[in-house]
Write a structure and sequence with these properties.
428 residues; Hypothetical Protein Tm1070, Chain: A; five-stranded antiparallel β-sheet; 3 domains; Jelly Rolls; 3 helices; mainly beta
Length: 428
């Protein structure tokens, strides 16, 4: 137990104050509400769009709305013509102006929200390029992936031109996801932007105020953050919001100032509510700490987790994403690791094509560490799937009620591990 106690101890300290807890571009690309964080139409850059439908019984109508960034010629959000996608059919638009023909003349850049009212899924892709053909790709992102989590963009640079090498400039953008069904007057969110070198030393910082539907560009983010003149490389931009919970969109571009070739770097979610690592997504938490049943109706909290006096078994349902490495352990109500005499044991099982399989735990086991869940074909016919974590009496201390807390970690995120069966007979 001792070799792994540091992890559950750290979890207890972080999670005791917050029981709440999304991510880079995913291959899970078909969704009903999609966002292109940056779209542009200017003399320097054009953007070509591709949309594709998944299997649908009927043609898919896609609604389009453009939200201009600060400093663009377009003064207000613009509803653009809808278009139709057929089964596994693709639609192409050669430019933002073809997609939104009523844009006012001049430079246009901002955020594009595309969606279906029917809930039918589709995917989107675009490429931004300059007149020489140099450019970068901007995928569409599902709207649900943008949260108030602290995010970071790495590898930013500001370099002066040298013989045979162009100057490099980094620009960063902060957006607040538009509200499709607002409940009142939009409220701005404060976003703090800090630049740190590779060792973590603070170089400079600034803050911006952004309302839902707005996109703010920090042209030359080093200058915007007050970083003294001079070359900087391998710099990290951190974005942290304060105020109303929001769908925060953060990203940066690094361009060379000779050809104006650039790339696109989406902000990676590092910390969710309570400083919990990873995306702010309760279906993909990296650390979980479950001490009670789910509350229902007017309950403030559910009943504490416990094995009652006597011999019985509880089952918690987890959703893990394999291949991954996970760890789980049982704590008592003082957040201390339990031992064998406490009277509990645990095991992890999964149902595969050949039946139930025990992956970890068993008699008198109260935690397991660094469990590799297996290669992709190992479970669920290659699909991410559910697992049963069973907690039961080990035959000791049977005269007492044994409260417990179930703590787990994973590298790719997992669900909370809700209790879905209790009071069953012991089985191992």
């Amino acid at each position: 137990m001792g070799a792994h106690s540091w992890r559950f101890g750290a979890m207890a300290l972080l999670l005791a104050g917050s029981m709440q807890v999304a991510q880079a571009q995913s291959t899970d690309g078909y969704h009903a509400i999609q966002v292109f964080p940056i779209v542009v139409d200017s003399a320097s850059f054009a953007q070509r769009f591709h949309f594709r439908a998944t299997y649908t019984w009927d043609p898919t109508e896609v609604l389009v709305k453009f939200y201009p960034a600060q400093g663009t010629a377009q003064p207000l959000p613009l509803t653009c013509p809808s278009f139709t996608l057929l089964d596994l059919g693709e639609r192409r638009f050669s430019s933002l102006r073809e997609l939104c023909p009523d844009l006012v003349p001049g430079t246009a850049f901002g955020t594009l929200v595309v969606r279906t009212e029917s809930g039918q899924s589709f995917a989107g892709f675009s490429r931004v390029s300059n007149p020489a053909g140099n450019g970068f790709s901007v995928e569409s992102f599902p709207a649900n992936t943008f949260t108030a989590a602290v995010s970071a963009v790495t590898g930013l640079r500001r370099l002066a031109a040298q013989s045979g090498s162009p100057a490099f400039q980094s620009n960063c953008f902060i957006g607040n996801l538009a509200e499709l069904s607002p409940t009142g007057t939009p409220v701005a969110t404060q976003v703090f932007v800090s630049l740190n070198d590779a060792s973590g030393m603070l170089l400079g910082q600034t803050q911006v105020e952004v309302k839902p539907g707005e996109l703010i560009r920090l042209l030359d983010v080093f200058a915007a953050a007050g970083v003294p003149n001079g070359d900087r490389d391998d710099t990290v931009a951190n974005f942290e919001s304060f105020g109303p919970s929001t769908g925060l969109m953060t990203f940066c571009t690094v361009q060379d100032n000779t050809s104006f070739g650039a790339d696109f770097r989406i902000g990676k979610q590092e910390l969710g509510f309570g400083g919990i690592p990873g995306a702010q997504d309760e279906g993909a938490m990296r650390w979980t700490f479950n001490d009670a049943e789910e509350a229902i109706d007017n309950e403030v909290s559910g009943a504490p987790l416990a094995i009652p006096a006597g011999a019985s078994r509880n089952i918690h349902l987890f959703y893990f994403r394999h291949p991954d490495v996970i760890s789980c352990g049982l704590l008592d109500d003082d957040l201390s690791e339990i031992n064998q005499s406490y009277g509990l044991e645990m095991r992890l099982r999964v149902h595969d094509d050949d039946g139930w399989r025990v992956l970890a735990g068993g008699n008198d086991v109260v935690q397991f560490a660094n469990l590799y869940l297996g290669d992709k074909a190992r479970h669920g016919s290659g699909a991410n799937t559910t697992y049963h974590l069973e907690v039961e009496s080990n035959g000791q201390n049977v005269g007492a009620i044994r409260p417990y807390l179930l703590a787990c970690t994973s590298g790719s995120g997992h669900s909370k591990g809700e209790l879905f069966r209790k009071g069953l007979g012991t089985s191992f």
